[in-house]
Prior knowledge:
Layout: E1 2-6, H1 13-20, E2 28-33, E3 42-43, H2 49-59, E4 63-66, H3 73-78, H4 80-100, E5 104-110, H5 132-147, H6 149-154, E6 165-170, E7 173-174, H7 189-193, E8 198-201, E9 209-210, H8 211-226, E10 231-234, H9 243-254, E11 261-264, H10 282-286, H11 295-307
Parallel strand pairs: 1-2, 1-4, 2-3, 4-5, 5-6, 6-10, 7-9, 8-11
Helix pairs in contact: 1-8, 2-4, 4-5, 9-11
Amino acid sequence: MNILLTGASGLLGRPLMKRLSDLENLDSLIGTAHSRLKAPLESLDITDEKAVRLAFDRWKPDLVIHAAAERRPDVVDRNPALAERLNVGATSLLARLTAERGGRFVYLSTDYVFNGSSPPYGIDAATEPLNAYGRMKLAGEGAVRAAYGKGAESQPPSTATGVPWAVIRIPILYGDVETLAESPLTELAIPLLERRPFKAEDWASRYPAHAEDVARAVALAVRRLASGEGGLYHFAGAERFTKYGMACVMADILGVDRSLVQPDPHPPAGAPRPKDCRLDGSRLTSLGFSPQVPFREGIRRALAPFMA
């Protein structure tokens, strides 16, 4: 099996490269990046159709895992045309080329496809994104289904048998970061380390997902695809926090007085955010999967390189 992973230099891509390298029947694993290219990753601009077609001819992937995206809602709002090319256009191109070659496809989506008013959300729940980022990721899901033909489009999201694609919706992501600004969670540590008072949003419920746990879920979906089982999965974070609550945990880890952090009970400024998009992860649970990294442990490890 030849695997192509987009976004391999990112917060999720890095642990995914490690996890995928342990899969059985692996002939080659090609990780691509564009703005943060490091060996052994390959350079690829996935918004460049000619470059992508040449890459497919060269690498001949049997499975494409599409993790590259613009995930910051406010950045999406500032440059929607560029975000559309990456989040929708590139997704459609990659899925179509994979389907044309008879390959399988895994797409990383988001809990922001829901409006946050009626959690928990099962895989058959109605979608209603509140912001452009959520709408683009939902359009990406539709592009994947469309690439595999009318039969795939007409099947309900819960269909599991004979579907050569998987969509995995995940909540807010964190993990071992290269910079504190790489995750919207670890960036909360910046003012803490500077001993600078600040407000942290205490309005929306978040269910943080450690990148290593998500990589495990993706690897499980890949193995199920190999046996003919695909469709939609929800990754359910095991713990509930607001950003204020997470900042307090980080303050304790960093040995900083919690009084530096003040709770802000209002919705965040910028692109609209849903209040509570808790996902129902029962499908993954039925396959024996559960998150293994508690938030306090995961965030302590993420912050450790910056504590000195």
